[in-house]
Amino acid sequence: MAKTSSTPRAKKAANPPAHPKYEDMIRDAIVALKDRKGSSRQAIKKYIISSYKLPDNTTTNNRLRIAINKGVEKGLFAFYNGPSGTIKLVKKEPVKKEKKEVEKKEKPKKNRQESNDKENEEAHNQNDQTS
Fold first, then answer.
1. Which of 41, 48, 57, 63 has the lowest tally of Cβ within 10 angstroms?
2. CA-CA-CA-CA dihedral for 69, 66, 68, 57, to nearest 10
């Protein structure tokens, strides 16, 4: 039988990846490609591989596919022409904040008749002073 040591082994600290999350890379790729109808998977993959220097292998392909599907489920991306079509970013609608209703002070309204009466009185007074 193999001997088991009673001292626990120190775990190696996992190195963080040299690239951001796949969702972030896909978002950057779609924004950078600026296609009106969305970007294809091949174009996104090509952009990610060239700009983040990832290997072109099945692991990258699988992670890219999974990230796209999860992004669609979360509402970050949308398929423009079905699941095998192009991928677009979903525009987030800005959340409208409810404005507090401020009570406006009511100003006394001037009647047109009162303002006309004042003008007539002033004109009449001027006529009396001149004569």
1. 57
2. -150
